[in-house]
Amino acid sequence: SVGIPYHLPISASHALCLEAAGDSSAVDADAQALAMGVLGRCMQLIDVVASEVAAGRDCIDQKWRPTRPAPVAEPIKTGVLVKHASPGHLLSSPQVRYFVLTDGLLEWKKDDSPDSEMLGALRIEGSTVVTGSAEELRVRTANDELVLRAPTGSKTQVGSHSLKPPGAELHAWEGALRKHILERQDPDARQFGQSPCLGRYCNLDRTPYKDAAPSLLAWILEGDDAPVGISTDIIARYAAKIKVLLQAATDVLKTQPVVSEVSVPAKVFGDIHGQLRDLLLLFHFYGRPDDNEEDGDGEPMSYVFNGDWVDRGRHQLEVMVLLLALKIVRPKHVWLNRGNHEDRAQNLRTTKTGNAGFNEACADALGSKQGAEVFEAFQSFFEWLPLAAQVEKHILVLHGGLGHGEWTLEELKEVERPLASSDLSVELDGVVYNILWSDPLQLKPENRRDPLRSFGVHDSPRDRHFMIMKNFGRDVTQRFCKTEDLDLVIRSHQFHNTGKG
Fold this sequence. Notes:
The chain is an alpha/beta fold. The protein has 13 helices and 19 strands.
């Protein structure tokens, strides 16, 4: 019910804003172009989600089957035709008009000049009927009819538009209209193909997906150029593009500190867990990166994504591809904190417990061979992720918690990356592990009668791994904030019991 106006699909001006705001000149040009394309298409998906909500078709991410955004309305066909009187219409004489066929609309203007206004239009639907002959073309809808003929006589040009022979021109228009009507008759014509489960197939050239429409991941990576069907070569191409994004984003992370320094204004996003639709809704309701949003002083908006982007959800790779593109395009205003699920051991553990772990998500989308390679490439990226972000020096953002709290930000800033899965439990004597995993003590009614349950440091019920994970009381947080001159600590890692997340 938040009254946010819809946004138009990304335009050239939006793309320029993204590029200018990104300050990503150090990124490889091919990776930059790929990231810009990914980001532009994901911004179009925000409009799809917004229209679904407005139409009352809300759903959870697991059941989401989005409609592929229509391409930017490039004309399907243009040309000069003579508009004649149709039954029931008064027309004193035939009119030479410049016609433009776009997605679902046939409109006409006085001429083809850029400032020429539209004089009329006919909506093209799946039920539109086209009948043609060598002399005449009729386009009939439920409520209207157009009678069109090709220009005749000695004129060979109208405005800047050259005229073709009458018969050829009408035939070309008839073909274009019939093809477009057929496309609009299929209600699933712009549906994405079902997300494939390729991990079970040894030979991707012999799967039941050889004629499948492009999946959501394929469209995000390649747009309307994504081919129909799945083969070893096509999947290898998708995997190669993901690796390009990973390498570029990792190169950016290597130039930035383990504790990110974030400027205000800033927005902080919690766990996403592969739920792309939820992430797009957050952008829709609370501001999207292509708005080039600024505060009253003209400072651009910063975005902090506080870990746990993978495991469990249906669109894990799609979420990661979007976050990689954001980091590449806006390296100084998009910040990625590591969560406890950005870790090989936790990915494998999630799969073992019966949920969709990230390793399984990669294999299902890209096959066992390419999926395993992409999964390993992501682990190298995860190992370079920052562990925390400091917003204007006085707000600390980390995924899990403070643990025992007996550490300083200066010590954390000295931690060296890459941090492999096996390093997390021992680095800084377990502090890094607690930053990813620990929780604050819950202020439950029974704890109020026993203050010892709400204060101090306690063993965590989560800790079945290394016996170093801690739960911490409010006194630990207050002492840490006072020592480090912090006003606030922001964490993720849990959802509130009364929430709907």
